[in-house]
Amino acid sequence: GAGVSQTPSNKVTEKGKYVELRCDPISGHTALYWYRQSLGQGPEFLIYFQGTGAADDSGLPNDRFFAVRPEGSVSTLKIQRTERGDSAVYLCASSLTPPVQGGTQYFGPGTRLLVL
Amino acid sequence: GIQVEQSPPDLILQEGANSTLRCNFSDSVNNLQWFHQNPWGQLINLFYIPSGTKQNGRLSATTVATERYSLLYISSSQTTDSGVYFCAVSSVQGANNLFFGTGTRLTVIP
Questions:
Q1: A100 to B95: CB separation less than 8 angstroms, yes or no
Q2: Quick check: B2 and B26 in contact, CB under 8 A?
Q3: Could you report the per-residue pLDDT of A21-80, keeping only the tens digit for each?
Q4: pLDDT classification of B93: cutoffs 50, 70, 90
């Protein structure tokens, strides 16, 4: 597609449930990033993939959060045993070049997660 | 991580006015981007500008890397310019992700 797409656009779940959020990066972009944005804040980094591998997962808040990118394109962010504090907008971004080379990161529209 | 400060935090303008938004950062960068987050939450790329000056229509940006700041200029503002403007940088030392400032909330009134 022309841009980064994310599904679902909104997700409401109950505390303790498992959720999966999907990201389709721009075609040909090898670098993929997940960020999380809480109300009134700037986005915060969660994880970076270069190809299929998670090159940097230092931003994941705890072991309830996990992400995969098995074929080097689509990525899924998985949250187990959701908590109310996980409520936020989850943003995906992709870039043509690895971050060490600089280059523009393009963001998707985000998934709004609400944990009741 | 690298620190990013944006000013002012809030700005209200009359339509047609000009404005300057500032971004200060604490380390050498290999990436600096300005974004506009619209009322629906979409982050729209404005500029990729780790150094130098760029212009795109009514918007322009300048980054002085040696002095660790960037400026975003908006001229002849329109109501559609309203939203939050973010500066985001990645450090040369730890370049795997963008660090975002807290943003400048711009409101343009007709």
A1: yes
A2: yes
A3: 999 999 999 999 999 999 989 999 999 999 999 889 999 999 999 999 999 999 999 999
A4: confident
Q: What is the spatial distance between Cα A87 and Cα A63, in angstroms, rounded to a whole number?
A: 17
Q: Does the CB of B47 have a partner CB in chain A at under 8 Å?
A: no
3-state secondary structure of B33: strand
Q: Is B7 exposed, middle or buried (0-12, 13-18, 19+ CB in 10 A)?
A: middle
Terminal Cα distance for chain A, rounded: 33
> Considering only residues 51 to 110 of chain B, which have any Cβ-Cβ distance to chain A shorter than 8 Å?
86, 88, 90, 95-103
Angle at B34 between CA B45 and CA A38, to 5 degrees: 85
CA neighbor of B32 nearest in space, from B71, B59, B1? B71
CB within 8 Å of B10: residues ≥ 6 apart: B104, B105, B107
Residue A30 amino acid letter: T
Q: Could you give the residue ranges of the DSSP H alpha helices within chain B?
A: none
